[in-house]
Amino acid sequence: MGSNVILMGLAPIGFAFDIRPLQIYGAVYYFVLFAFEIIIWWIPYFAEPQGKWRGVYNFALSLGTSNFQAGDALSHWLEVHRRLHTGTLSIVPRKPKRVVPNLEHTLLHAWTLVTAVVSFRAIYA
C-alpha cells in the first residue's frame, strides 16, 4: 500500500502544483497501471494463456503482482484469488476455475482508465 500511495499520488501533486514532469508521469503511469489491471484481472477471466504465451503471461503477471516466487504465476494467483475474493460481489458472470473481477476492482479499473485519459488530455490537449 505504501508504494501505491507514492506512485498514485505523484500525478495529483503534479496537477495541483503545476509540476509538468509529474503530470507527464501521471499520463504514462495510469495507462501502465491499467495495462497491469488487465493482465491481473481480465486476461485470466477471459482466457487461460497456453504454450509459449503462458510463460510471457506469467512474467507479466509476476511484474503486475510483484510476486516472483518459483512456479506458475497464474496458478498461484488463482489460489490467492480463490482465498481472498471468492465470496465478493461481482457484476460479471462467474466462471469456474477462473479469476473473476469483483465489483470493487471493476469500478477501480474503470476509474483508472478515466484517470489515464483525463491526465493525458489535461497535458496534451
Shape: elongated
Strand portion, in percent? Answer: under 5%
Give a count of the beta strands, DSSP E runs of length 2 or more.
Answer: 0
Major sheet description? none
Please bin the fraction of helical residues.
Answer: over 70%
Instruction: Provide the gyration radius in Å.
Output: 16 Å
Structural class: mainly alpha
| Helix and strand run | HHHHH
Number of helices: 5
Low-confidence stretches: none
Q: N- to C-terminal separation?
A: 32 Å
Tally the structural domains.
1
Q: Calculate the mean pLDDT score and round it.
A: 94
Q: How is this structure best described in words?
A:
The chain has helices at 2-16, 20-46, 52-65, 73-85, 103-124. The protein is elongated, with a radius of gyration of 16 Å. The chain has one domain (2-124). Helix 1 (2-16) packs across helix 2 (20-46) and helix 2 crosses helix 3 (52-65). The longest helix is centred in the N-terminal third of the chain and has 27 residues, at 20-46. The chain has 5 helices and no strands. By secondary structure, the chain is an all-alpha fold.
List keywords for this structure.
125 residues, mainly alpha, 5 helices, 73% helix
Task: Walk me through the topology.
Layout: H1 2-16, H2 20-46, H3 52-65, H4 73-85, H5 103-124
Helix pairs in contact: 1-2, 2-3, 2-5
